[in-house]
Design brief:
Blueprint: H1 3-18, H2 30-38, H3 54-64, H4 83-86, H5 110-114
Length: 115
């Protein structure tokens, strides 16, 4: 686990003590949960979205690692997709699992792929 992710988790634990409800509350928007830890600047340069999403993608990877370093759902998309193609930070909530059928039409799921 990267140092940056560890310190972000530590920061989140402190924030969870200070804030109510917890920063990990299911049903909270993904971007909001991250912003409570590190502000909009956690993902956006100077808090403003980039035109192509590349800067944001680099920020995700600096904390979570690259697609290639993740599980069998993530690895095949290395070099193909950015995190936000599946985890839209302003549309999805903490605890939401992205589905496959917007891009694959053979009925695959994360569960069938991880088996
Ligand atoms: C977890 C990373 C993350 C955090 C934190 C985050 N954003 Fe974003 N934001 C993104 C990504 C990725 C996009 C582009 C893709 C998308 O919209 O899903 C985006 C898009 C946007 C857009 C473009 C319109 C839109 O919704 O697509 C605005 C405006 C924006 N963010 C504002 C903010 C503000 C203000 C904050 C702080 C309250 C914030 N963001 C926090 C990742 C983040
Ligand atoms: C092809 C769609 C897809 C892409 C692209 C993707 N993810 Fe995921 N992600 C998923 C799915 C589906 C799950 C739930 C199943 C699993 O654990 O793999 C998940 C789970 C996760 C989890 C664990 C959260 C939980 O549900 O327990 C994290 C953290 C995560 N992704 C981060 C990322 C990051 C960071 C990137 C970019 C480097 C990324 N993902 C790119 C689909 C995607
Ligand atoms: C500053 C570090 C940091 C950045 C940047 C960051 N994350 Fe996270 N993220 C965390 C931490 C800490 C957690 C909570 C612990 C965990 O689940 O790994 C988390 C949790 C998550 C989860 C799991 C939420 C759940 O359902 O449990 C997803 C998905 C995720 N991040 C996606 C992203 C995406 C996509 C981006 C970029 C747009 C991003 N993160 C940027 C630190 C970061
Ligand atoms: C945003 C579009 C998108 C989503 C959503 C998506 N994929 Fe993919 N996936 C791709 C692309 C692009 C490729 C690479 C081209 C190809 O091989 O079809 C790919 C390739 C793959 C591959 C390797 C080749 C193959 O077809 O088997 C696997 C495995 C895979 N995806 C699993 C999943 C799973 C599981 C999910 C749902 C959790 C998912 N994908 C969601 C776009 C997506």
């Amino acid at each position: 686990m990267s140092k940056k992710l560890l310190s972000a988790i530590f920061g989140a634990a402190i924030a969870a003590l200070a804030l109510s409800p917890s920063v990990f509350a299911e049903g909270q928007e993904l971007a909001e949960m991250h912003a409570e830890m590190d502000g909009c600047e956690a993902c956006h340069a100077d808090g403003s979205p980039s035109a192509d999403g590349e800067y944001e993608f680099e920020q995700c990877q600096s904390c979570h690692g690259t697609l290639d370093e993740m599980d069998a759902v993530h690895q095949p998309h290395d070099g193909m997709l950015m995190c936000a193609d599946c985890h839209a930070p302003h549309e999805m909530n903490v605890g939401d699992k992205p589905t496959c059928d917007s891009c694959h039409d053979d009925g695959r799921t994360a569960e069938s792929t991880l088996k």
